[in-house]
Amino acid sequence: xxxxxxxxxxxxxxxxxxxxxxxxxxxxxxxxxxxxxxxxxxxxxxxxxxxxxxxxxxxxxxxxxxxxxxxxxxxxxxxxxxxxxxxxxxxxxxxxxxxxxxxxxxxxxxxxxxxxxxxxxxxxxxxxxxxxxxxxxxxxxxxxxxxxxxxxxxxxx
Length: 157
Prior knowledge:
This protein is of the alpha+beta class.
């Protein structure tokens, strides 16, 4: 399967899961009568995935595209977000470049290098609103002791 097709399929699965969780969360929040205070945002998303591409796409969607960044805080190694607490992360102090409204049908990745417990991807993102509409990034993923992939580095490349 081509990288573009896999990228698109994994993104579609991720989008459906986030949408489902969002609908359930909004329903639960709106079904409590008489409660008008917003609950504090918690960074309690997954700590990684056994599939590095799933981790990469979730990270890009949450942290780079800034769509529910609290869901991806734990996908990032602490060394890649030094001194950034969950509260600061959610308030917008994300130590990675922002790139909004990604065109997931045109965006793709390629493997630059890999080794035991490490994968470096060259990621090309296309945007529907950013200028320039195409940007290249380098994304490094590292595998933890419990065999989950987490983001160790992300920058324009």
